[in-house]
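REVIEWER CHECKLIST
Item 1: Sequence provided? yes
Item 2: Single chain? yes
Item 3: Sequence as submitted:
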Amino acid sequence: MAVDDDLRQAKQPVSGALAGPYGHPFHPILVTVPIGAWVAGLVFDIASRIVGRPGFLTHGSAWLIAIGVLGALAAACVGFLDLVAIPSGTPAFRTGLVHMTLNLAVTAAYAAGFAWRHADGYGAGRAVTPGQLALSAVSLAALGFSGHLGGKLAYRYGVRVADEGVQAEGYRTGPPSPSS
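Item 4: Structure as written out by the authors:
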């Protein structure tokens, strides 16, 4: 019975106003900002090494990195609220800790990358350096692995996902139930 209680606890928000209501968590919505910004930033980095006048790409990439860092911090705040709802000592909690730690490390790497670019004069019209490009690529790969862990939390462990009884409503024929 304790497993059922733990599972029920992990599905409920600590604060619906801050982390999103039951079945509609904010964390998966917010993570699209850093993911999109950092993927686009890497594309700009690669393109800056190819085109003849790379300044606008280098400048754009730096600001995409900054947008990603800000978005990651917002996602981390609500993600932390989701984490504290998971009972400690469980595989889901341990997975959540690794997911959080990786994401914080990736965010720190991108923040350091932004500072490096700023100190290097990203607006000077040069392409990103090979080191800056490598940092972005490695950081994005680590983010991909962390995203895999986030998917495991949601799709395998059901963290902040509606329970199967609620999900089953979407597969019934006939009029919707009053709670829909």
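Item 5: Key structural point noted by reviewer: Helices lie at 2-11, 16-19, 27-30, 32-48, 55-84, 91-119, 130-156, 164-168.
Item 6: Recommendation: ____
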